[in-house]
Amino acid sequence: MRAQIWLIFLAPLVLLGGLYAFGLTIPVPHLGRDYVVRVLLPEAGDPVDLPPIYGPQDRTRPLVVIDAGHGGKDPGASGAGYREKDIVLGLALALRDELVEQGGIRVALTREDDSFLVLEERPEIARRMGADLFVSIHADSAGEVEGVRGASIYTLSTRASSEAAARFAERENAADEVNGVRIEDQSDAVGDILVELSQRRVQQTSAEFADLITREGRGVLRFHPQERRAAALAVLRAPDVPAVLYESGFVSNPDDARQLTSPEGQRDFARVMARAIRIFFARQAGA
Known about the structure:
Layout: H1 2-21, E1 28-30, E2 33-35, E3 63-68, E4 78-79, E5 82-83, H2 84-102, E6 106-109, H3 121-128, E7 133-140, E8 151-156, H4 158-172, E9 177-178, E10 181-182, H5 188-217, E11 223-231, E12 243-250, H6 254-261, H7 263-286
Parallel strand pairs: 3-6, 3-7, 7-12, 8-11
Antiparallel strand pairs: 1-2, 4-5, 8-12, 9-10
Helix pairs in contact: 2-7, 4-5, 5-7, 6-7
């Protein structure tokens, strides 16, 4: 009981001491006077810290940003005792390690743990880092439908490309650089056209990379019968970064889930994807 009484009297003093230590300012009226403790806060609009880059520090080396979908309070699809956010993080880390071990390519991850990211933040991280390629990894679910399995690769659809280009131009107010072309001081109409043309080129390049994944994965990875798809996915809508969304398999299929979480399955995925990435960058360098 005595300890509780002391706690009641000491708690406000401890709180004020902590606030003072951190420089917090609060008015404390006492005998007609105000005592104020000041704190320095970061300026509004400061950008969120970007993730670390692994591999060579030479900025002329290509940079791939790997995005493990979902995370934190968003588990993604679930089934057979597995969660999408866990499966795709394991695949993303395996791919990072494979690329770093082989050398020559810089690698960053949008998340390396069970963190939550807003969907729009993911491609924006790639844009801000000046990435040369963006790979978003996910896993699907067929619900109660049995026997559905295999990976598929999504790229941005033509219609979605036009819609996303218009939104991007509007958001950036034509005061940005896209694919090395400065669109600042252009009219809204010209800015929209430049972004649209840029995204069409990026869309074609993304499709070429998707073709490489399927080619290099033949006989190693299990693909869905409809292995290539196009959709209006927000995570693919950066207008100046080639991007694919790789649906690694079906969480709802126990065989797929076990394969994707096994060391052998993660190694197969990492080797195939790393090989496709290297070929892609080699082709871009020779273009």
